[in-house]
Amino acid sequence: MTTEGISVAAAEEISEEARAELQLVSRAREGDASAFGELIRPYEARIFRLAMSITQNREDAEDVLQEAFLKAYEHLEQFQGNSKFYTWIVRIAVNQALMKLRKRKSDRSVSLDEQIDTGEDTVIREIAAWDPDPEQRFSQEEMHGILTEAIDGLAPIYRTVFTLRDVDGLSTEETAEALELSVPAVKSRLLRARLQLRDKLTRFFKRKGDDAFAYM
Amino acid sequence: MLTCKDFLHELSDYLDECADAQVRAKLEEHIAECPNCWVIADTTKKTIRIYKGMDPYPIPSDVESRLMKALEKKMAAGRP
Fold it and tell me: What domains appear along chain A, each with residue ranges and CATH number?
């Protein structure tokens, strides 16, 4: 296998899936355009969702999607294989999205690292038990609508961390790396995002007959 | 004895199963006695489970086709 420029140690300790991905990276580096297409296809929709979640504007998200993949193609030499390709692409896309926001808002201070109120208890409004499998009460389409609406209601800093960590399944460390945040910053945003979503979903999923009551 | 606020602070580590054994034991002791925190832990756990792996909407076809065109143009020009 040709993995020129990719750390041997990294290449030795990876899954089959990651190994196949590294092969695509190598082929793309050698000029194989179809390999690059194959490499990015599984991530297009996820990167578009991420770009939407930061910019909250379809036109900007489309630009971010294009710019992120074009930049990745240009700078493929810099991908060392020490992290997942997806984490690397996310980092590029987040930078592009933040640049868009700064341009749009004429505000150079836009960042995902802004100070947040960490009073977790302020996001507990409803406490009511849910059915064991609340999703079974809704069709797949209804569920997608409910989950999307709830997540869209989060502030971008929470939505981005939650999407990468809990929806896409990156580890806390990978999420921190992709967003250039510290691990404690990721953890505190994640907790707040989880609690806010739990609160929003309780409206739909609480067990029938259970009244919600205020948190002490 | 843990307070509800302490419990909330440790909730993510508890649900991600990365709280150390001593802390975990204290958290379990707390939810065994506090029905509100039990409900919060249970419903937060279900929230995470429901969202896990949720597929994004496919990219709109016009966006996909513009992306492909931009990439083809870039690739035709060759990598730097």
Answer: 8-105 (1.10.1740.10), 120-205 (1.10.10.10)
